[in-house]
Amino acid sequence: MTITNAEIAETFELMADLLELQGANPFRVRSYRNSARVIRDLPEPVADIVAQDPKRLLEIDGIGESVAAKCQTLVQTGKLPQLEELRAQVPEGLLALLRIPGLGPKKAAALHKELGIQSVADLEKACREGRVRQLKGFGEKTEKAILENLSLAQQAEQRIFWADADQIVQQLLKHLKQAPGVEQAEVAGSYRRGRETVGDLDVLVVSTQPSKVMDQFAKFADVGEVLARGDTKMSIRTKRGLQIDLRVVPAESFGAALQYFTGSKAHNIELRSRARQRGLKINEYGVYRGEERIAGRTEEEVYAALGLPWIPPELREARQEFQWADQGKLPELVRLEEIRGDLHMHTSDSDGSASLEEMAEAAVRRRLRYIAITDHSPRVSMAHGLDPRRLRKQWRLIDELNDRYEGKLKILKGVECDILEKGGMDLPDDVLAEADWVVASIHYGQRQSRQQITERMLQAIEHPSVRVIAHPTGRLINRREPYQVDLETVFREAAQHGKFLEINATPDRLDLNDVHAAAARQHGVLLVISTDAHSPEGLDAMRYGVLQARRAGLSAQDVLNTRPWHEFSRLVWGKSG
DNA sequence: GCCGTTTTCGGCCCGACTGTTTTCAGTCG
Question: How many helices and strands, by DSSP H and E, does chain A display?
Fold first, then answer.
């Protein structure tokens, strides 16, 4: 089994943790963390690069001789001697201590050195016996805080879905705006960057009366406890364990603060290093030349002061956004209003909850101009998959509806046809040939080898009636692990056969990332963002799909269903209809 | 450990808050 980029990244994260506990050079530690991040986001498996030409690793920003060599060792042997060595020196249980809020590498190391603590259990015992408070740099409060935070160690790193965070955000902003003197309130952080999950919330408020805002914040219905409160900054934890940080800033610093707290951390480090090169300093209050503030009121101002165009928050991950900005190639990210069609949805004929008419009506209300009805094929018996007879019956009804909606909505006669375990499609060719829009989908045999699954997908791509491949990246609802598929081959072949790849819009999983987007662009494949709705409300999930697409750096041009109907027809069938 | 419009050495983003201090280190974002 070849090692994945995620596994390599994890290895380097672990190296960083262990080195930090040993008190190693903090820049060396950061370097490992940086390598981990870069490798996690890499468009190509490190294993493939090593197999082709290991020297190419050195071309990647943030990876040097040492990490490149370690990558090679990891790919070839699956192990890393340097890591084993470090592990032998640092007790396993110490790593868990780092997960306790308030405990960092220095304190964890001191606990180990002075009190011989090797695990969370040891630490709890030492705290209860009052031994921790006697250590230099520790005190009664620290000891008490550790005991209180022990249970948090497990639930730390728990992130909530963006959609859930969004609900809290809307309530919180409404609540805060009721405080006197509030001019502006925004949520920054990973929420603003549109990450699929959010670990905490960073709220920014412009106000001349910070203490009034903080009082109001403390009265937010969800507040479980107040963690800290200073002059400009306050932190709380909600009853369900989500941390929310509040900063009150003056109007002239709002842009700088918004930029700073939106992050990402890696993006900000790059930005600051650029400021430094220009003899400028940037912090959450503004951009400074010496003592003089030269920007800060808006984000646009801040970026402009550094010679950069405004970079959309969804792109701020220190991937390629600076390179794009330098070359004037920042994408114009796709917007929800640009989506004109939804090409994957179910009705009560299979496992949907609403009738065909209800779905069509819902689409019209959402200003869609065309949709495809794509119920399941017979193999998905659990969902009452449609056989040819029922399918044709549904299609006759669609013909009628199309007459009724003439000029308002175009309904495509579609089907989500399974790609069978042993290859081939789940419906006869003559039936598929009658459909306007065939989505090919793998639901069964997901545990097959990468090669087998790729082969099945290729067959579907080559099938003359198939238009689009659903979940090409292998991510499906109810499956934690994606199935394995050779993306490179699938993208290339799809492009060659004029087929499309579908990205599902759901609030709780990520089908698409910048890696897939880059592959799509490279091969010239158009992507389809679909909701896979099973109810009228399901159509609203389109906003999550668009958010994913934006994070991946896609513009309207990269997405098939932003096209007006005549252009869509030409791209799909080679003629305008 | 990485990197170079200060290029093979000497730097590496910056500030708030807390607790333990009596001027600051550690942690966090």
Answer: 24, 17
What's the CA A88/C1' B16 distance, rounded, in angstroms?
37
Residue nearest to nucleotide B14 (CA to C1'): A283
Å: A252 CA to B2 C1'? 36
Nearest nt (C1') from A108 Cα: B26
> Residue A154 is part of a domain; what is its CATH number?
1.10.150.110
Rounded to the nearest 5°, which phi and psi values hold at A282?
-125, 130
- Per-residue pLDDT at A479 exceeds 70: no
Query: How do residues A108-129 score in pLDDT, each as one tens digit?
Result: 988 888 888 888 888 888 888 8
- Predicted pLDDT of residue A205: 94
Examine the domain organization and report whether A50 and A99 are in the same domain: yes
In Å, what is the separation between the CA of A328 and the C1' of B3? 25
CATH number at residue A298: 3.30.460.10
Cβ of A575 near strand B (under 7 Å)? The reply is: no
Cα A45 from Cα A207, distance rounded (Å): 48
Euclidean distance between CA atoms A379 and A421, whole angstroms: 10
Stated in angstroms, how far is A275 CA from B12 C1'? 14
Interface residues 84-113 of A with strand B (CB < 7 Å) = 100-108
Cis peptide before A264 (omega within 30 of 0): yes
Q: Are residues A528 and A567 in the same domain?
A: yes
Proximity of residue A191 CB to strand B below 7 A: no
Supply the range of the domain harboring residue A13.
5-158
Nucleotide nearest to A68 (CA to C1'): B1
Distance A273 CA to B3 C1' (A): 12
| CA A272/CA A296 separation, integer angstroms | 14
Handedness of CA A100, A104, A107, A110 (dihedral sign): positive
- CA dihedral (A326, A328, A333, A334) in degrees, to 10, reads -150
Which residue minimizes Cα–C1' distance to B15? Answer: A283
Task: Please give the sequence-ordered ranges of beta strands (E in DSSP) within A169-312, or none if there are none.
Answer: 182-187, 197-198, 200-207, 223-229, 233-238, 243-249, 281-283, 286-289, 292-295
Q: Which bases along strand B come within 7 Å of a protein CB atom?
A: 1-3, 5-6, 11-21, 25-29
Q: Total domain count for chain A?
A: 3
A130-158 tens-digit pLDDT: 888 888 888 888 888 888 887 766 555 57
Characterise A298 by phi-psi region: left (phi > 0), alpha (psi -120 to 50), beta (else): beta
> Is A314's pLDDT higher than 50?
yes
Nearest nucleotide (C1') to the CA of residue A64? B2
Q: What is the mean pLDDT of chain A?
A: 90
Instruction: Report residues 215-234 of A contacting strand B, contact meaning Cβ closer than 7 Å.
Output: 228-233
Q: How far is the CA of A547 from the C1' of B15 (A)?
A: 31
Residue ranges of alpha helices (H) inside A263-311 are: 265-277, 299-305
Cβ neighbours of residue A118 closer than 8 Å, sequence gap 6 or more: A91, A92, A93, A94, A112
Amino acid A124: pLDDT = 86
Q: Closest nucleotide to residue A279 (Cα to C1')?
A: B6
- At A405, list the tokens: 């909606």
Closest CA to A499 of A469, A521, A470: A469
